[in-house]
């Protein structure tokens, strides 16, 4: 392991300061990323200084900016939980005339000024925060007020406490046919992070190239390992094997290949790992919606009864009151998504299960029993989960849910049957027969037992069985012209009863059906009520301009229903044997030896 060189810290310390490790520096939005001003500063973004490589910004006389925001407020509770930060300082480098003030906002919303400093000319100041040992929750943040023009060159929270461990961090990125994304991302990181001497020898990027078509020369600073495509599970397993085989790495960070995050998130992740006393730390990045950058998709997640549940879903990160709530423990987070998930290598006892994709991150967290934490300001962006849902993803998601429930959940037959049945009927009754068939296929495949996964590591042949909904992209005027509904309607008991006994219209005679289409959002509450008695349905994908159309088809519906009933009866009869098969083989299919055998025949990269 290569520790930091003596006299080198994260970012050069100020001349008047002792050697410090930067934990959390003030940032402004990075060009090319989804942006929302209120996530960085209030009341608006300050004027950037022309040097685009700098985070410096300018204030005119009379202006004031406060940084009690998602990216710039310092979370006391989470850094206290890390356990290794016994003292804390705020360092600022400001030129001009004005005032900088440090505040504490408690969980109850009480704001206290901890200190204030006048700015005259140029200051390079590091002020220790005496209140730090007594603080246990809330946010630390500062404001800058300009009496005359001021330029803030840098500001950060730092500590003189020694690291618990100086991590050698391997950032594993699994890539498949997204060359432009990964090229741009690595080049951005290379410029902002890997050229910083403090990180050159302690953070290393490893790209697992599942499509075997990435030119290593196009991703300078990263090691490229060409790999057979066994999906995200196989890619991340290959990355883990590499890190373990090297023997020098202490920590791992799994990331998506577009690395759609502030580079500062990686720095903060490194610092959190360096100061955490918890061997089983699992640092999960918050996933934000790239269409609504202030909206949380997931900030930690739980798995119960075969159901994946994102925590803090839909929370708005802009109000400071919400920031305090976001740092509270909600539910029982047991895993973090692999778009951004960091952990210690010596805490890994189980490798990824060969799901290909979907469910691998959940089972990895459950098997390794990580203590999941999330921190405001460590986040990335992605298209919303629901906008990516299709028959294909429903197959992947439902087979993972059922398999995990059988392996590490209660695994009871009737609850498992209920889980699959409700998902199947929701799609079939709303005429989305491709998705209903995909769920049926997932049920049939999982019912084959653990050998199914061993024999189908290469998922692509299986994918050909799944029919896709034919999506079309429409102009915005289309949705204004048609009566799309995104909320359900009140229903009488009689109407609900008729819907139930008629299988949402599939048993009604043709003359009872409406000829005009139903225009609905795919995830509208009360969807079955809105589609009832419609022969033709036009669905709008979530947060997109894509539509797909569905037609009520009685023969197809009853054919699928008959197959699902037969699969269910077989599952009920064989349920205990299926569960035993999974639980017996789980340790084998998540072992390091299993993946070593899988990749044994592959040539090693340079």
From TrEMBL:
<dbReference type="Pfam" id="PF17994">
    <property type="entry name" value="Glft2_N"/>
</dbReference>
<dbReference type="InterPro" id="IPR029044">
    <property type="entry name" value="Nucleotide-diphossugar_trans"/>
</dbReference>
<protein>
    <submittedName>
        <fullName>Glycosyl transferase</fullName>
    </submittedName>
</protein>
<dbReference type="InterPro" id="IPR040492">
    <property type="entry name" value="GlfT2_N"/>
</dbReference>
<keyword id="KW-0808">Transferase</keyword>
<dbReference type="GO" id="GO:0016740">
    <property type="term" value="F:transferase activity"/>
</dbReference>
<feature type="domain" description="Galactofuranosyltransferase GlfT2 N-terminal">
    <location>
        <begin position="23"/>
        <end position="157"/>
    </location>
</feature>
């Amino acid at each position: 392991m290569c520790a930091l060189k003596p006299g080198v810290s994260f970012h050069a310390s100020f001349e008047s300061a002792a050697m410090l490790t930067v934990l959390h520096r003030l940032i402004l939005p990075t060009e090319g990323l989804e942006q929302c001003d209120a996530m960085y500063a209030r009341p608006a973004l300050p004027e950037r200084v022309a040097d685009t490589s700098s985070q410096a910004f300018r204030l005119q006389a009379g202006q004031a900016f406060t940084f009690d925001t998602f990216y710039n407020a310092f979370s006391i509770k989470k850094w206290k939980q890390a356990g290794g930060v016994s003292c804390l300082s705020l360092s600022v480098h400001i030129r001009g005339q004005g005032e900088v003030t440090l505040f504490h906002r408690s969980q109850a919303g009480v704001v206290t000024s901890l200190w204030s400093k006048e700015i005259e000319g140029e200051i390079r100041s590091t002020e220790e925060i005496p209140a730090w040992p007594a603080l246990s929750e809330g946010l630390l943040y500062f404001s800058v007020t300009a009496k005359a023009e001021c330029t803030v060159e840098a500001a950060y929270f730092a500590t003189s406490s020694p690291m618990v461990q100086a991590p050698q961090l391997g950032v594993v990125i699994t890539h498949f046919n997204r060359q432009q994304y990964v090229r741009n991302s690595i080049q951005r990181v290379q410029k902002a992070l890997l050229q910083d001497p403090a990180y050159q020898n302690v953070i290393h990027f490893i790209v697992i190239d599942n499509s075997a078509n990435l030119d290593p020369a196009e991703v300078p600073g990263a090691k490229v390992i060409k790999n057979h495509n066994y999906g995200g599970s196989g890619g991340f397993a290959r990355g883990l094997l590499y890190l373990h085989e090297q023997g020098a790495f202490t920590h791992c960070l799994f990331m998506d290949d577009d690395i759609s995050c502030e580079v500062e998130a990686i720095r903060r992740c490194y610092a959190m790992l360096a100061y955490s006393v918890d061997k089983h730390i699992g640092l999960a990045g918050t996933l934000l919606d790239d269409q609504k950058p202030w909206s949380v998709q997931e900030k930690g997640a739980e798995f119960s009864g075969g159901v994946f549940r994102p925590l803090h879903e839909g929370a708005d990160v802009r109000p400071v009151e919400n920031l305090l709530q976001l740092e509270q423990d909600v539910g029982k987070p047991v895993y973090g998504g692999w778009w951004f998930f960091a952990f210690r290598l010596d805490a890994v006892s189980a490798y990824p299960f060969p799901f290909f994709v979907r469910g691998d991150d959940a089972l990895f967290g459950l098997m390794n029993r990580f203590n999941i934490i999330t921190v405001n300001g460590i986040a990335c962006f992605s298209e919303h989960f629901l906008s990516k849902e299709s028959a294909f993803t429903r197959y992947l998601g439902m087979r993972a849910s059922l398999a995990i429930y059988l392996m590490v959940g209660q695994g009871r037959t009737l609850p498992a049957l209920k889980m699959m049945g409700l998902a199947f009927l929701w799609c079939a009754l709303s005429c989305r027969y491709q998705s209903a068939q995909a769920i049926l296929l997932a049920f049939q495949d999982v019912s084959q037992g653990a050998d199914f996964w061993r024999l189908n590591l290469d998922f692509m042949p299986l994918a050909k069985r799944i029919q896709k909904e034919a999506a079309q992209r429409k102009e915005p005027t289309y949705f204004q012209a048609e009566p799309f509904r995104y909320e359900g309607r009140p229903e009488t008991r009689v109407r609900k009863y008729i819907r139930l006994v008629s299988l949402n219209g599939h048993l009604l005679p043709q003359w009872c059906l409406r000829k005009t289409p139903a225009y609905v959002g795919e995830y509208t509450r009360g969807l079955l009520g809105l589609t009832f008695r419609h022969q033709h349905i036009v669905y709008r994908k979530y947060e997109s301009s894509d539509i797909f159309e569905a037609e009520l088809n009685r023969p197809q519906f009853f054919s699928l229903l008959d197959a699902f009933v037969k699969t269910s009866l077989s599952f009920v009869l064989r349920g205990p044997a299926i569960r035993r098969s999974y639980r017996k083989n789980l340790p084998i299919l998540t072992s390091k030896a299993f993946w070593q055998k899988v990749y044994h025949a592959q040539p090693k990269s340079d």
